[in-house]
Design a protein that fits this description.
Elements (H helix, E strand, L loop, with lengths): L9 H18 L3 E4 L2 E4 L6 H14 L1 H27 L9 H8 L2 H29 L5 H25 L5 H21 L1 H15 L16
Antiparallel strand pairs: 1-2
Length: about 220
């Protein structure tokens, strides 16, 4: 239930969430390596998307999180269509970078498609589990709810993204390394930033006057 609404920070959260997704998908076109650890470049920012998902669901409720998830989906789709259309345009002969553009950004559609599939399954799972657990725990043990929902959501996200984005492109051994690395790092980031997440959640609940419990929520990904 809503208590009282003051200033809204939802526009800032939504914008930042969408930017994180866009940058993560572009950065994912590069496979980086630190020592024996290989990972896609999107790993640098993408874990923040789940933290934002936790904050949205905890403070504003599942329905509002669902709205932001679909906004992120739409912005990602717009990005990949734009890259695709620009790639089709004839290049100026003096530019000389058409091949570089195609070599880097031509793989973005597949990566974004993989990301969107993984993102929808992972984010909706994350928000659903956190919202349900909040009701069951009467709003207590946020640390347990945040980490538990992330473990499941990020697990689904990582498996779907790794297989759809890179199966047939990268060797199986590298796929396994990338998948495990991504998953472990994502969960560790969630745990390490949990104190910061606590402070943001507390700040927003106080400033917004909102602490939403999804007792009668329609949990369909599409909603009414």
């Amino acid at each position: 239930m809503f208590i009282k609404q003051k200033n809204s920070y939802i526009d800032i959260i939504t914008t930042t969430f969408a930017v994180v997704l866009l940058l993560s998908n572009i950065a994912s076109t590069k496979i980086a390596a630190l020592g024996s650890m290989s990972f896609d470049g999107g790993l640098i920012l993408f874990p923040l998307a789940y933290i934002f998902g936790d904050i949205l669901t905890e403070v504003y409720g599942y329905a509002q999180a669902r709205r932001v998830i679909w906004i992120g989906f739409s912005m990602n789709l717009l990005m990949v269509l734009t890259f695709w259309l620009v790639g089709l345009l004839p290049a100026d002969p003096t530019w000389g970078l058409q091949d570089s553009y195609i070599n880097i950004l031509s793989v973005v559609p597949r990566i974004v498609f993989a990301s969107l599939m993984a993102y929808l399954v992972g984010e909706f799972s994350n928000s659903y589990i956190l919202a349900k657990l909040k009701v069951k725990t009467h709003g207590k043990k946020f640390w347990f709810r945040a980490i538990g929902s992330t473990v499941i959501g990020e697990g689904l996200d990582t498996v779907i993204f790794t297989l759809v984005a890179f199966l047939g492109i990268l060797p199986g051994s590298l796929l396994l390394v990338i998948g495990l690395t991504n998953y472990v790092v994502k969960v560790l980031v969630e745990m390490l930033l949990l104190p910061v997440t606590y402070k943001i959640v507390h700040f927003l609940k106080k400033k917004e006057g909102i602490d939403y419990y999804d007792t009668d929520t329609d949990f369909s990904p599409i909603g009414k």
